[in-house]
Amino acid sequence: MKLLIITQKVDINDDMLGFFHSWLEKLAEKADIFVIANYIGQYDLPKNVKVFSLGKERGAGRLVKNLKYQWFLLKLLPKSDGVFFHMCPEYVLGAHLWPKIFRKKTLLWYAHKSVNWKLRFAEKLVDKIFTPSRESFRLPSKKLEITGHGIDINKFQISKLPASETGLKSDGKFKIITVGRIAEVKNLHSLIETAGILKNKNFNFEIKVAGASILESDKIYFEKLKNLIQEKELENIVEFVGPIPNKYIAEFYQSGDLFINLSDTGSLDKAVLEAMACGLKILTSNEAFKYILPEENFTKNEPKEVAGKIENLSKSEKNYSLVEYVDKNHGLDNLAEKIIKQFRNA
């Protein structure tokens, strides 16, 4: 089988999209792969994966990228058994009717609460849509299938990590971590308010936040967070470590005792699932996890309650049964098989 995959970026060092490198490796075990990517960075893929760039990493403009996209489609579609569009409805629209003209089955992977005209149009053009959870695709469609997030469990196994990164602590501090975009929707200001409460209780802890501020509004919010940290004199407790390449993110997770997520998006946050796959203690206010996690791992987004939950969890053992949940419901092996099956039945 030969599969054409169209995606935003192939770069093992990227903090947001680096995970897709693992997807390509896994799919390459089951099929020969052609990849058209808007941006190409560093990668180390099997020989049966051929990568073609639209040239964003070289500063190519929109017209040049669109022309290259059409050229690659015309070149690769006749050789492929199907087309897998990753995330961007724009790529579906940009392919026009070429997949239908060449009679190739199409699949769109989409995981975002946003519903715009591009997504509505793309839904009409593709044969099937995969999404990780019911909350991740808000447009009603008979083409939809819920598949889980596609997390590479092997990557997060504690035995796979260096001994220095297996969560063993020497300074006695309870280490709290979180991962994600630095944006107001993540409610990091509530986490800082919680840190102030714990400090006043003489709780021995530290907080590390991994992620970047991307939008201009994110950068303004980031400045507010830094001012709040100074106001509460938490400079030696709360640290923003910046974005971490996806290939190193498992080591960062394992450096912590507790993963905290105070986002109220209502969607199954992939970072929470990754932390669960590492066997970390979890604390979240996200309603999407309410019926997945035990009560002690769920909190209202209220600093006093969050602080109390953190103190309680600091005294409990890690819950490794959560690893089994992620493997069964969000494992990459299962997702890759579903993707291949979709085209095998074409």
Can you characterise this structure?
This protein has 346 residues and is of the alpha/beta class. It folds into 2 domains: 162 residues, Glycogen Phosphorylase B (Rossmann fold, 3-Layer(aba) Sandwich), CATH 3.40.50; 174 residues, Rossmann fold (3-Layer(aba) Sandwich). 36% of the residues lie in helices and 19% in strands. The protein has 13 helices and 12 strands. The radius of gyration is 21 Å and the shape is elongated. About 3% of the residues have low confidence.
Core attributes:
elongated; 13 helices; Rossmann fold; 19% strand; five-stranded parallel beta sheet; seven-stranded parallel beta sheet; 346 residues; alpha/beta; 2 domains
Could you give a short description of this structure?
This protein is of the alpha/beta class and 346 residues long.
- The CATH superfamily of the largest domain bears the name Glycogen Phosphorylase B
Largest sheet: 7 strands, parallel
Tell me which oligomeric state these chains represent: single chain
- How many structural units, i.e. domains? 2
Estimated share of beta-strand residues: 15-25%
Strand tally: 12
* Ends distance: 11 Å
* Separate helix tally: 13
Strand order of the largest sheet: 3-2-1-4-5-6-7
The assigned CATH architecture of the largest domain is: 3-Layer(aba) Sandwich
